[in-house]
């Protein structure tokens, strides 16, 4: 009886959060680092299925940088990154598109369905919803750097995403967009997730990665910072504390906050139920960034 009562208490406690997030969009970005650990992926997707079942509207956006690099190596191509973006020639684009849409996206959809959810992959092979433009970044002298077919998302098919979510189906999106000519563009998945969160008016944007959050010393997990402001993030990027793959993530987070996304979370996909802990508890896990 006590056991049953404690379970009921948990449900009652969760009610406030469930009510608060009902019908709200939450964008969940699964990084390539997390995707490399199948157990983490299963646990995270089980949380996504739970979120949808209690009335939230989760949208899954995924990367797969490590898998793309492995597939390139198998084809004898050396990956090259410019300011965190993969230089994408036509052959690289072909590989990235295949790995992200045919391999990773479809396997995430299958797994969500196995876990009892309903899900659909929205990509070039089904229904694309990401509209992009070529991205150019400046070098130290301000001249544009050639990144090949790399893009940024400037618009989405919101009507399609809304209809899918309203129908109780979880959309799963790889970070490939189409330009005005109908040609594919390779988009960094962190920036794609931030653009989708912005354009959908999402309540939250959650990055699931392979670290517990942002550290002040990247080799010392005890220096995890639970709460960061926009200003502090800028300082940590400028002094090199936030480095490597964390830079596009935090930059994308700042952009999303700037246009009205309430909160950003960077959490560890390896912690069991980290997503539910973040959404449905007072304490939260990982690092949250607020405006
Ligand atoms: N200050 C920091 N705190 C935590 N991780 C950091 C920091 N600076 C750099 N990193 C690195 O960023 C990585 C996460 O970025 P990335 O590998 O691109 O993840 P994902 O595949 O999830 O997008 C971590 O594994 C870590 O090595
Ligand atoms: C332009 C660009 O860099 N695109 C990324 C897309 C995948 C990605 O971002 O994956 P992660 O989330 O695992 O980093 C790439 O080709 O690696």
CATH architecture: 3-Layer(aba) Sandwich
Unreliable sequence segments:
none
Oligomeric nature of the chains: single chain
* CATH homology group: Acetylglutamate kinase-like
- Could you tell me which ligands this complex binds, including any ions or cofactors? adenosine-5'-diphosphate, N-acetyl-L-glutamyl 5-phosphate
Using DSSP, what is the number of strands? 16
Biggest β-sheet: strands ordered side by side in the sheet: 5-10-2-1-13-15-16-14
Describe the structure in brief.
By secondary structure, the chain is an alpha/beta fold. It is built from ten helices and 16 strands.
Walk me through this protein's architecture.
The protein is of the alpha/beta class. It has one domain: Acetylglutamate kinase-like (Carbamate kinase, 3-Layer(aba) Sandwich), CATH 3.40.1160. It has helices spanning 2-21, 32-35, 38-53, 65-74, 90-114, 158-166, 189-200, 230-238, 246-258, 274-280, and strands spanning 25-30, 57-62, 81-82, 85-86, 119-121, 130-134, 137-138, 144-145, 150-156, 170-174, 176-178, 184-187, 204-209, 227-229, 263-268, 287-290. The longest helix is centred in the middle third of the chain and has 25 residues, at 90-114. The N and C termini lie far apart (45 Å). 44% of the residues are buried. Adenosine-5'-diphosphate (ADP) is lined by residues 31-34, 63, 65, 190, 209-211, 214-215, 218, 241-246.
Write the layout of secondary structure elements.
Blueprint: H1 2-21, E1 25-30, H2 32-35, H3 38-53, E2 57-62, H4 65-74, E3 81-82, E4 85-86, H5 90-114, E5 119-121, E6 130-134, E7 137-138, E8 144-145, E9 150-156, H6 158-166, E10 170-174, E11 176-178, E12 184-187, H7 189-200, E13 204-209, E14 227-229, H8 230-238, H9 246-258, E15 263-268, H10 274-280, E16 287-290
Parallel strand pairs: 1-2, 1-13, 2-10, 5-10, 9-12, 13-15, 14-16
Antiparallel strand pairs: 3-4, 6-9, 7-8, 11-12, 15-16
Helix pairs in contact: 4-5, 7-9
The site of adenosine-5'-diphosphate has 19 residues, from helix 2.
